[in-house]
Structures are given as C-alpha cells and as structure tokens.
C-alpha cells in the first residue's frame, strides 16, 4: 500500500575534517518496476573540534532531565546557564558540579585532570522543580554556555552547537 515513512536512515563516523554526505545514482525497485529517484542536495558536516549538546531523556514524574553531548575532543570544564526551572541537584559522571538557583549557572570541572572524553553520552543529569513551585510548569532553556579543553599547556575554548532546540516545555 502507498504511504509515507522513513525509507532509509544513515549513520556516520564523526571526523575532525569537514565532509559531505550525498546520495547519488539511487534507484528504487520493487514489484518488477524500477523507478529512478532524484537525489537531494548534499548535507555538509563541519567536522572540526566542536561539541554538540542536546536535551536527552526527560522524566516529568521524578522531575529529572539529561543534557547529552557529542564531541570530537575531550572537555575539561564547562559552565552553562539553565533558565526556566529551579535546580535541585546536578550530577555528572565526569565532573564535580556546582550550581546556583539564583542565576541558573551550572559549572563542572575535575580537579584530578579527568573530564568528558571525546565521543557521546550524558554530560549531566539535573533534578528540578517548576519555576515557581515543585509541581509547576517547567520550561528549561540553555541560555549561555562555555566549554573548554586543556592540551597540557593552555586552556582552549570549544565551540558548541545545539543538536536540537535549546528550550523545552515540560508539563
């Protein structure tokens, strides 16, 4: 039957070099017919030493949310501002964290020299309350962020992008 849906999905390996993902010379076949298809524009992947962050799993009942990362470089420290919720706790497998409810600032560092490895995973898990009450509406937004790596000689800023939106609505 005719319909719409996902025909194919692709995965790729992150690289420090810019690259393009292109579909070329594609043919769709089935039921003894062959349909030539048109290929869309190529998708450019910037590469480089950047970091992508996104909201991950959200538990609206227990009021927790994850912030995930994908990075080509290790991250040794970060600071971000999360507005729209009241922070109750922040935990990270990689960093010692501190936070302020007054400003929404969360900072992470590791005084023992470890940090967030290159790759992907959960940067932190946040326990929160609504902006005005524990059960109130929560609209977390990452409004500012700074990430840094250390190469043994100096601290270097790491550019970041959002994989999806920088704000959520949680009922």
Question: What can you see in these coordinates?
Answer:
By secondary structure, the chain is mainly beta. It has strands at residues 19-21, 27-30, 33-36, 43-45, 51-59, 64-71, 77-83, 86-91, 96-99, 105-109, 119-129, 141-150, 155-158, 160-162. The strands form 4 sheets. It has a 5-stranded mixed beta sheet with strand order 8-11-6-5-14, with no helix packed on it. Strands 9-10-7-12-13 form a 5-stranded antiparallel beta sheet, with no helix packed on it. A two-stranded antiparallel sheet has the order 1-4.
User: Strand-residue fraction?
Assistant: over 45%
Major beta sheet summary: 5 strands, mixed
Strand order of the largest sheet: 8-11-6-5-14
Uncertain residue ranges = none
Number of helices: 0
Supply the helix-strand structural class: mainly beta
Round the mean pLDDT to the nearest integer and report it.
80
Overall, the morphology is flat
Helix share bin = under 10%
Helix/strand order, N-terminal first: EEEEEEEEEEEEEE
> In oligomeric terms, what are we looking at?
single chain
Q: What is the number of E strands?
A: 14
Rg calculated over all Cα atoms: 20 Å
Distance between the termini: 38 Å
Q: What characteristics describe this protein?
A:
mainly beta, 171 residues, single chain, five-stranded mixed beta sheet
Please sum up the structure shown.
With 171 residues, the chain is mostly beta strands. Helix content is 0%, strand content 47%.
Any chance you could write out the topology, listing elements then pairs?
Elements: E1 19-21, E2 27-30, E3 33-36, E4 43-45, E5 51-59, E6 64-71, E7 77-83, E8 86-91, E9 96-99, E10 105-109, E11 119-129, E12 141-150, E13 155-158, E14 160-162
Parallel strand pairs: 5-14
Antiparallel strand pairs: 1-4, 2-3, 5-6, 6-11, 7-10, 7-12, 8-11, 9-10, 12-13
